[in-house]
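Bench log. Compound arrived from synthesis this morning; before running ITC I wanted a structural hypothesis for how magnesium ion sits in the protein. Inputs:
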Amino acid sequence: MKVPLHDLESQYASALQNYLAIPAEAALHRAYELGRAALENGVGVLEMAALHHKALATLLSNKRRHEESIHFAQAAENFFVESLAPFEMTHRAVQEANTALCQLNERLEEEAKRIAHTLHEETGQFLACVYLALEEVGRDLPPPARGGLHRVRDLLEQIGAQLRQLSHELRPMILDDFGLLPALEFLADGVSKRAGLQISEEGPEDGRLPTSVETALYRVVQEALINVSKHARATHANVRLWREPRMVHCSITDDGVGFDTSTVLGKKGHRGLGLVGIRQRLDVLGGTLQINSEHGRGTQMLIDVPLEM
Ligand SMILES: Nc1ncnc2c1ncn2[C@@H]1O[C@H](COP(=O)(O)OP(=O)(O)OP(=O)(O)O)[C@@H](O)[C@H]1O
Ligand SMILES: [Mg+2]
């Protein structure tokens, strides 16, 4: 239930007063409950500190001798710390969830590598067998019937090329072997062909980034380009990478329909996982995402990732 901030302030002030009068366990537990209520109502730690300071200042202003004030302030500290316990627990839970997500991401990357490899190697071998079988069948056929087999062969070649493209995009070996820019060029090429939009890429040709940064940026750009192809109705997109000594930047820009970021990002309940996933990947690396978008004016995503020295 939503508790207005001023109600919380007065409840906190009177609970603190009770605790200072009789510093019993039950009164301290009230601090914990108020902390939980504050958390549920979206009150932040800084607001809690301000609220505590205000309540304490009022109580101390009415008071007393110097020693008594010191004693009050020390007891009030216990009360304040207890009210922050729910924040601390939430903070730990978020850290643990982040670590778990990070491990999950690593496992997914491994799994993607395995599937990409299987898709690439096994379907390649399988198709090679099919070509041989077709050739054998063709040898026994009269020449006019062989034309049909050529068409089947062409179609199989297209399927083979698509499977190879998909397997490379799933976990591009090019990313491991040649680095981020070539992998992004390859990705953009695939998205561009499938979605029918032009995508240009720019960035430093040489130098590698840490593997975790390259993988994260590849996944971020992949999701951003999928979003462009799904939502933007754009004709052009641009992916740009640039480096500073301690930072790598990336922008993905499109000339599509744009969107209202505050509505989309502020929406509670059901919403897509793409942007959340991007933020989560960047959080782990201490990176940030900024989205500039307006209806009818396209979208720009700006990503900064610090590089450990
Ligand atoms: N480049 C873009 N142009 C226009 N709208 C966009 C763009 N990128 C994102 N959006 C809007 O932001 C919303 C949230 O994007 P997000 O990637 O989080 O979810 P989704 O793409 O809808 O679903 P999911 O990624 O889980 O498949 C989209 O539904 C869309 O309305
Ligand atoms: Mg998406």
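What the model suggests: Residues 243 and 249 are 6 Å apart (CA to CA). The two ends are 47 Å apart (CA to CA).
ITC booked for Thursday regardless.
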